[in-house]
């Protein structure tokens, strides 16, 4: 494992994203390593519950987009001509890797501190339960330009109207608000986060594995019946389209010119991007 650590502690499997200097930003290897760690936990007869956390100052700051936005890379296609199905195949594989947390036969708990942003929010929201520090922040800013959350878990956790509130703005919210609107299970002061997650994990670990499995499969099936797979297919296709819209291509050019962080500040400022970046659309 190059991007995370895995160990078993009694009945609890602990997966820790381990790129603290990059705020645990997602590399090409990380999604597959998350899946492999979850599969290891499921194969261990002693494990009853999985706890996912992040090392250092944040849970996960999303994809390591400095790599993708500031220069060309073969991982996520950003240039023209664009092959949407090649793009879909890559991003769908990442989505399925994250969804290993959702499909896991053993319950998964995300412990969120600092930030769970963009792809980091996808990872957290694929877990069965999410516990946040009250001051931690979660959201999907690329919904403004250059992305669409491929797991689509915002819809299934919040319902349509609140999901629209989050994805039409790209806003970040603190753990307090995330709990209040039902996005996460709990939010506690940062100093109490470890203890709260440990208590929850211990509570689950005392339940027989077959009972945990049955309850989780029943609830997950309801989400599948609501069209989860179809929604994720559209979301993953739209994620690629968002990177190749006129605004998406302008964002890429801007990141190459002034750097990714400055381009993000401009994107998230609230200013009309067509005016900010000098885009002109032909009137129909």
Strand numbers in spatial order across the main sheet: 1-2-3-4-6-9
Total helices: the number is 14
Helix coverage percent:
40-55%
**DSSP strand (E) fraction?**
5-15%
State the order of secondary-structure elements, H for helix, E for strand.
Answer: EEHEHHHEEHEEHHEHEHHHHHH
In terms of quaternary structure, the protein is single chain
SS-based class = alpha/beta
- Radius of gyration over alpha carbons? 19 Å
Major sheet, described briefly?
6 strands, mixed
Q: What's the mean pLDDT score?
A: 93
What does this structure look like?
- With 284 residues, the protein is of the alpha/beta class.
- 48% of the residues lie in helices and 14% in strands.
- It has 14 helices and nine strands.
- The protein has helices at residues 30-43, 65-69, 84-98, 100-103, 119-126, 153-158, 160-167, 175-180, 193-205, 209-225, 228-242, 246-258, 260-267, 273-276; strands spanning 4-9, 12-17, 49-54, 108-112, 115-117, 129-133, 137-139, 172-174, 186-188.
- The strands form two sheets. It has a six-stranded mixed β-sheet with strand order 1-2-3-4-6-9, sandwiched between helices.
- The protein is globular.
- The model has no long low-confidence stretch (mean pLDDT 93).
Characteristic key phrases:
284 residues; alpha/beta; six-stranded mixed beta sheet; three-stranded mixed beta sheet; globular
Write the layout of secondary structure elements.
Blueprint: E1 4-9, E2 12-17, H1 30-43, E3 49-54, H2 65-69, H3 84-98, H4 100-103, E4 108-112, E5 115-117, H5 119-126, E6 129-133, E7 137-139, H6 153-158, H7 160-167, E8 172-174, H8 175-180, E9 186-188, H9 193-205, H10 209-225, H11 228-242, H12 246-258, H13 260-267, H14 273-276
Parallel strand pairs: 2-3, 3-4, 4-6, 5-7, 6-9
Antiparallel strand pairs: 1-2, 7-8
Helix pairs in contact: 1-3, 3-11, 12-13
